[in-house]
Automatic annotation (TrEMBL), chain A:
<feature type="transmembrane region" description="Helical">
    <location>
        <begin position="65"/>
        <end position="93"/>
    </location>
</feature>
<keyword id="KW-1133">Transmembrane helix</keyword>
<keyword id="KW-0812">Transmembrane</keyword>
<feature type="transmembrane region" description="Helical">
    <location>
        <begin position="149"/>
        <end position="167"/>
    </location>
</feature>
<protein>
    <submittedName>
        <fullName>Rod shape-determining protein MreD</fullName>
    </submittedName>
</protein>
<keyword id="KW-0472">Membrane</keyword>
<feature type="transmembrane region" description="Helical">
    <location>
        <begin position="114"/>
        <end position="137"/>
    </location>
</feature>
Automatic annotation (TrEMBL), chain B:
<dbReference type="InterPro" id="IPR007221">
    <property type="entry name" value="MreC"/>
</dbReference>
<dbReference type="InterPro" id="IPR042177">
    <property type="entry name" value="Cell/Rod_1"/>
</dbReference>
<protein>
    <recommendedName>
        <fullName>Cell shape-determining protein MreC</fullName>
    </recommendedName>
</protein>
<feature type="region of interest" description="Disordered">
    <location>
        <begin position="276"/>
        <end position="362"/>
    </location>
</feature>
<dbReference type="GO" id="GO:0005886">
    <property type="term" value="C:plasma membrane"/>
</dbReference>
<feature type="domain" description="Rod shape-determining protein MreC beta-barrel core">
    <location>
        <begin position="130"/>
        <end position="269"/>
    </location>
</feature>
<dbReference type="InterPro" id="IPR055342">
    <property type="entry name" value="MreC_beta-barrel_core"/>
</dbReference>
<feature type="transmembrane region" description="Helical">
    <location>
        <begin position="19"/>
        <end position="37"/>
    </location>
</feature>
<keyword id="KW-0472">Membrane</keyword>
Length: 178, 362
């Protein structure tokens, strides 16, 4: 099926998915903002990235770059992190996942997608750390970042499962192939 | 050509996409550079975003708070016997402390009256609710639902019931952002009691911030109290921060009195230093020998004999020699006397009578 032959039904479905991405990402941001654990010994996973990586891998057509740009910048403004650095690293990370979604044939392994999302997130956090270090902005020690990356990696399949099986979004590549 | 996932793969579309990505990346790099160069201005913009989304944050945060409270309640229920025993022991200990505190309070009041101490009228506070924290690994910050309209000032000290929690680093109309003491960029000048040594409390992401640049570390022992020094006039002096402990490597750290893991309500202090002494007094003549008319008759003479007059200073009756009251002994000869040594306390006002009653805390 070509994009041009998709018809109004497909366009409506895509718009609905974009809306779900918008609302899902904002809900993830609000959940991250909830005052549950300000100390790093109880790190909060990056739920925002979990939602974004799911859409970038499973619904790349419903993940427009400009929307990702606006969402990541809003995330930086709300969470109080290094403004611009977080948005830049997550935007690049999303594009890397989109490249994987385009380059890898449809029946992709779930484990591979999970590993890709986790590794790209680790790279994004590393990029933020590097930008802060290069500009003398007192970044945390890399060891302090590791638990945060680990909890985010563990949360990725949970959020993906919720979006896939509860909200019925983004059929897995195997299913779409069938 | 387009794939079935809708991503256009044509050469022109791909080139456009790359150009757009490049432009966005350059823009974000510029935003980051702007944030590093002009942080206060960027934080104002950032807080305007927070201001706009504050009602949403509060509405979403409500149910999450409820869930969090449910989990905490369940944990408390599981450990109820253990907690009960600990609370009984603590009550016994606190009863002894209460007697000591009452005795000290009475002694303090007597000494204040003897010394004619005037309480600072400028120390007030506003209570706010914590509606969000950063949730990220790079900053330990929180959001509270009070802002500029409530009289919160940038840099204000934020306390929970037990001690200092942080300071305001971003200010919106209805919300403010707190930088916790545990954050990597937090630096607070402190005093160690009872030795009186000074140090800098430096956050490093852990629950117990470091004590850097400590004077005479040998004089400091675990269990000593850590309080704000008031240097820089950002915080009032003598705010409780916590106790000195030895870190895993033996370096001095501070166990915070504030419970940052369970912050719900915080007090934001509205503190303005009573007097800022940033110029020499009238007795110190700047440049050249004294003229015949004396230092107080020059253009820099202050009406009270202290610093130079501010922009709104008007010649009052005290400026006229016949109306000037006799200065209290020592007032004119100690122009650099720090007026506020303890929270809410300041030195007697020049000319205050011996029988003047101490002021009251607002």
């Amino acid at each position: 099926m070509s994009g041009g032959a998709a018809g109004p039904g497909a366009a409506f479905r895509r718009a609905a998915e974009v809306l779900v991405l918008l609302l899902g990402a904002l809900a993830a941001l609000m959940a991250q903002l909830a005052p549950l654990a300000p100390l790093p010994d109880a790190p909060m996973p990056d739920l925002f990235w979990c939602v974004l990586s799911f859409f970038a891998l499973r619904r790349p057509e419903a993940t427009p770059m400009l929307l990702v740009f606006a969402l990541t910048l809003t995330r930086d403004a709300l969470l109080g992190g290094p403004l611009g650095a977080g948005a830049l690293s997550l935007l690049l990370g999303t594009e890397m996942l989109r490249l994987r979604a385009r380059a890898t044939p449809a029946p992709r392994s779930l484990l591979g997608d999970w590993a890709a999302a986790a590794l790209v997130y680790a790279a994004a956090v590393g990029l933020q750390w590097l930008m802060m270090a290069l500009t003398f902005a007192q970044p945390p020690s890399p060891m302090a970042l590791a638990p945060h990356v680990a909890t985010t990696a563990l949360a990725i399949p949970l959020i993906a499962g919720f979006l896939r099986y509860v909200l019925r979004l983004g059929a897995s590549p195997r299913e779409s192939e069938a | 050509m387009a794939r079935d996932d809708g991503i256009a793969e044509g050469g022109a579309a791909r080139a456009l996409r790359r150009i757009l990505l490049l432009v966005l990346c350059l823009f974000l790099l510029a935003v980051f550079a702007f944030w590093r160069l002009d942080n206060p201005r960027v934080d104002r913009i950032r807080m305007s975003v927070v201001d706009g989304l504050q009602p949403v944050i509060e509405r979403v945060g409500g149910p999450l708070d409820f869930l969090s409270a449910m989990v905490a309640d369940f944990e408390n229920f599981v450990r109820v016997y253990e907690q009960n025993e600990a609370l009984r022991l603590e009550i016994q200990r606190l009863r002894a402390w209460r007697e000591s505190a009452l005795a000290l309070e009475q002694e303090n009041a007597r000494l204040r009256a003897l010394n004619n101490v005037r309480l600072s009228p400028s120390l007030g506070f506003v209570t706010g609710e914590v509606i969000g924290d950063s949730g990220g690994p790079f900053l330990a910050t929180g959001l509270i639902n009070v802002g500029r309209r409530d009289g919160v000032m940038d840099g204000a000290a934020v306390m929970d019931g037990a001690g200092l929690a942080g300071r305001v680093v971003g200010l919106g109309r209805r919300a403010a952002r707190i930088l916790y003491l545990t954050d990597y960029s937090s630096r607070i000048p402190v005093l160690i009691r009872p030795s009186g040594r000074r140090a800098i409390l430096s956050g490093d992401g852990g629950p117990a911030p470091r004590l850097d640049f400590l004077e005479d570390p040998d004089e400091v022992r675990p269990g000593d109290r850590v309080v704000t020094s008031g240097d820089g006039e950002v915080f009032p002096p003598e705010l409780s921060i916590g106790l000195v402990i030895a870190g895993p490597d033996g370096s001095p750290r501070t166990r915070l009195a504030a419970d940052l893991e369970r912050l719900e309500f915080v007090r934001v202090l509205r503190y303005r230093p009573d007097t800022s002494i940033d110029q020499p007094g009238g007795l110190i003549h700047r440049g050249g020998p004294l003229d015949e008319t004396g230092p107080e008759s020059g253009p820099d003479a202050a009406p009270d004999g202290g610093g130079a007059p501010g922009p709104d200073a008007r010649p009052g009756p005290e400026a006229r020699p016949e109306a000037r009251p006799a200065p209290p002994p020592g007032a004119a000869t100690i122009p650099f006397l720090t007026p506020s040594l303890t929270p809410g306390f300041s030195a007697p006002a020049p000319g205050a009578g011996a029988g003047a009653a101490p002021g009251t805390r607002p």
